[in-house]
Amino acid sequence: MLIISMLLLIIMFNITGNIFSDSSPSDKVLVALIPSGEVITRIDMGSATLERVGRGWRLLPAEQGIDNQVLNEAISHWQSARLEPIELDSLTGATVVNVWLAGQSAPRRYLFFQMAGDMFVQYPVQGAQLYKVINLTWPQLFLMDIPHA
Known about the structure:
Shape: extended
Order of helices and strands: HEEEHEEEEEH
Number of strands: 8
Radius of gyration: 20 Å
């Protein structure tokens, strides 16, 4: 009887656990593109994919003259990107980026926009809120400033 009552209590707490929470996931404001402490395993940027191979990285399709140090810097840019919420109407012409994190079964899907030299991002899982990337440029995130051999 004690076991059954304990199981019922566990079920009740699981069902009612979110009732006492003030905010829903869509109410949380992002401050970083990649959550602190998360490990990137792959970034799909449409025409290019950056993926972890052992302790290093590789870019697909392969580009001549790009060494692992440059790819490490690119990953560092993604992990250090800071966001600021903005009030702006919806934008068009999104670049879809899927970021795979270690331990996650599905990627984080982002929509990136360029407008007047600024870079904006939307994380649709959390609604239509737009964010401005405040510390990086488009070429830094999208591997456009990599010197080619």
